[in-house]
Design a protein that fits this description.
Helix content is 82%, strand content 0%. The protein has 239 residues and is mostly helical.
Length: 239
């Protein structure tokens, strides 16, 4: 455990120190910051490093192992429908728990928090199932990404999607790069692919995050299309 803490300290310090140094330089040059502000900022930087250390350590010793174990165990059952349901459920639950998503939902005025959170979570869940079938059927990742992004950009350029929803949709895709979602999804992918044990096992264990990031974009774009249709119908009824 001591070695793991030291390793996480080595990872956290380079992540926080550059920003801290830049802010301190600005405080002593351009910004007329009070000593109290600088002290509070330094305390916050130290607490941020401590939080990153313990959070990433917890993710490594718990979530990574849990995800990998779940992935390998459910794959051994050989029940495709059962595996798909579990992948969808886990994708939704992990995404709902993602703190980045709640921050995004709080800052988006055009969509209710619960609607946006569940739309993104369902998108991640669906594409986690797609990721499983890619591993199961050994489909090349590039093929799926090309097709999906053609659909995504086609929808984004469509007049059916409001511009506000396009911006929110692409920001929602970044939710899958959060501190909770990434470790779990990557570990789950390793577990799903490890059971096969063939030459492409290591390759197939990657790409789940890339695929899952498409899900929120598509679901929010479709949510925007649905909102546009509802508004158009209301205007028609009024006329």
């Amino acid at each position: 455990m001591k070695n793991q803490l030291l390793q996480k300290l080595k990872e956290a310090v380079p992540s926080v120190m550059p920003v801290t140094i830049i802010v301190l330089i600005l405080c002593f040059t351009i910004v007329d910051a009070s000593p109290q502000f600088i002290v509070l900022f330094l305390i916050g930087a130290v607490l941020l490093m401590a939080g990153m250390i313990f959070f990433t350590l917890g993710a490594d010793v718990s979530m990574m192992k849990i995800g990998e174990t779940i992935g390998s165990r459910i794959t051994k059952s050989r029940k495709v429908l059962f595996i798909a349901i579990v992948c969808f459920t886990l994708g939704v639950i992990i995404t709902v728990a993602e703190p980045d998503l709640r921050v995004l939902a709080d800052t988006v005025p055009i969509v209710e928090n619960a609607v946006l959170i569940w739309s993104v979570a369902i998108g991640v869940g669906i594409f986690l199932v797609v990721s499983f079938f890619r591993v199961y059927l050994q489909i090349k990742l590039s093929y799926i990404l090309i097709v999906m992004y053609i659909i995504v950009f086609g929808l984004a350029l469509s007049p059916l999607i409001p511009n506000d929803f396009v911006a929110v949709a692409f920001d929602s895709g970044g939710v899958t790069t959060g501190p909770i979602t990434v470790p779990f999804i990557m570990a789950l992918g390793v577990g799903l692919a490890s059971v096969r044990g063939d030459k492409t096992t290591q390759e197939d264990s990657f790409g789940l995050v890339a695929l899952c990031s498409i899900g929120p974009i598509l679901t929010v774009l479709l949510l925007g299309a649905a909102a546009m249709i509802v508004v158009a119908r209301k205007r028609t009824v009024k006329k």
